[in-house]
From TrEMBL:
Catalysed reactions, as listed in the record: 2-C-methyl-D-erythritol 4-phosphate + CTP + H(+) = 4-CDP-2-C-methyl-D-erythritol + diphosphate
Coiled-coil region list: none
Gene giving rise to this polypeptide: ispD
Pathway(s) of this molecule: Isoprenoid biosynthesis; isopentenyl diphosphate biosynthesis via DXP pathway; isopentenyl diphosphate from 1-deoxy-D-xylulose 5-phosphate: step 2/6
Assigned protein family: Belongs to the IspD/TarI cytidylyltransferase family. IspD subfamily.
Site entry: Positions MEP for the nucleophilic attack: R163, K216
Catalytic class of the enzyme: transferase
The species this protein was found in: Streptomyces davaonensis (strain DSM 101723 / JCM 4913 / KCC S-0913 / 768)
Protein name: 2-C-methyl-D-erythritol 4-phosphate cytidylyltransferase
GO MF annotations in UniProt: 2-C-methyl-D-erythritol 4-phosphate cytidylyltransferase activity
Amino acid sequence: ARTAAVIPAAGRGVRLGPGAPKALRALGGTPMLIHAVRAMAASRAVSLVVVVAPPDGTAEVKSLLDAHALPERTDFLVVPGGAERQDSVKLGLDALPPEYDIVLVHDAARPLVPVDTVDAVIEAVRDGAPAVVPALPLADTVKEVEPAGTPGEPEPVVATPPRARLRAVQTPQGFDRATLVRAHETVTDQVTDDAGMVEQLGLTVVVVPGHEEAFKVTRPLDLVLAEAVLARRRL
Ligand code: C5P
């Protein structure tokens, strides 16, 4: 079985504040996207990384990848992304050569995922799961609300799902390629992760342990944490 990783990196990252597209922001002096690509290439099982770039930034992303060394065994491709994350992933899948039968989908916004987590996801797909997600138990209690019409207005709570049964889902998510392609062809609902599309096909998605360093860099405080994790690794 050959494994490829698709990295959607076409988002603007508005929640992070003004500046370059999120994937191109520096972390320890290196663009976040390069960290994410290296995190996938760190797995000996991954021989191709497909980066889905902002449509007006494919040339820039290509030259970035050329400028940063990857392991000898790893190829990369750059393709332009779409309006929504889902569209970007689909465009990445369309670019995959036929010989890849396992696909990882990994957010550029999770630059520090450890290789053991990547390998655990691949292993579970090899063992026969059509879709695998790394995830962690929650520290916070989660409430479902009736969203307020106007921002800042109090929102009534609708439900409190038992916390022990909830998991916060990370990436890379791993898939049997044919399953993920079918999900992208059939599911049209908006979803926030790829495994959600596979669930809508009626298939079972399984969870493997995630890692706290696989957190998503979304808000300015996440950048502070990411810099600290990186600094600790370099000690
Ligand atoms: O916005 P969010 O943090 O959920 O984005 C997750 C990932 O999806 C990021 O790596 C972002 O660059 C990517 N994305 C994309 N195409 C879009 C929107 C987001 O590739 N149109």
